[in-house]
Design brief:
This protein is of the alpha+beta class. It is built from two helices and nine strands, in the order βαββββαββββ. Helices cover about 10% and strands about 30% of the residues. The strands form two sheets. A five-stranded mixed beta sheet has the order 5-9-8-6-7, with no helix packed on it. GO terms for molecular function: dioxygenase activity; lyase activity.
Length: about 190
């Protein structure tokens, strides 16, 4: 299904900005372990901190702030507490739950082996589908994306994902939930 935006010509993500506790450790992980080139660095005015940008493909960048006064993360609120196959996937409203990097389907298994060889703890491979469980161990006709999850040194949840089918109009079939559908009391 080819879709076009009648209002704006978006060309992907310019950058997604996250916050880290140790910029050197972040550079080591994203440039070293994941091989993302560091393409821009800057010190923020007034000793506020630093802002570094990593190329994550197709001209898109993943950026990190190191902020001198940033509070520590709160797992389960700032981001999920762990990997989806072992822990809660829940994070707070307004948080960034995870970043999924698109990888070529033909290299998916190879990339998983590389990260595992580098000692990165990984989730199981999930073959996402429309079943009640949302995923299966095996790839089948209903599988629309394959993925696995891992965390960066600050606990940011990351995912390598590859689409396995083209979407059709039948793939948009759910009524959006509202704030009233939440399982937590609203702040009023």
């Amino acid at each position: 299904m080819t879709v076009t935006n009648p209002k704006f010509e978006f060309r992907g993500i310019n950058h997604l900005a996250l916050v880290c506790s140790d910029m050197q450790r972040t550079v080591d992980f994203y440039s070293g372990t994941l091989g993302m080139p560091l393409v821009k660095t800057l010190d923020l005015p007034g000793n506020l901190g630093q802002h570094f940008f990593f190329d994550c493909g197709n001209g898109d960048t993943l950026a990190f702030f190191w902020l001198a006064d940033a509070p520590d993360a709160v797992p389960g609120i700032s981001a999920p507490a762990g990997l989806p196959d072992r822990d809660e996937l829940v994070s707070a409203v307004g948080s960034m739950n995870h970043v999924a990097f698109a990888v070529p389907p033909e290299k998916f298994d190879e990339y998983r082996k590389r990260l595992k060889a580098d000692g990165v703890p990984l989730s199981i491979t999930l073959n996402h589908d429309d079943s009640p469980e949302g995923a299966s161990r095996e790839i089948h006709e209903g599988t629309f994306v394959r993925s696995f999850y891992f965390q960066d040194p600050d606990g940011v949840l990351l995912e390598f994902a590859c689409w396995t089918k083209e979407f059709t109009e039948s793939d948009v079939a759910h009524t959006p939930k509202t704030a009233a559908d939440r399982n937590v009391p609203s702040a009023s």
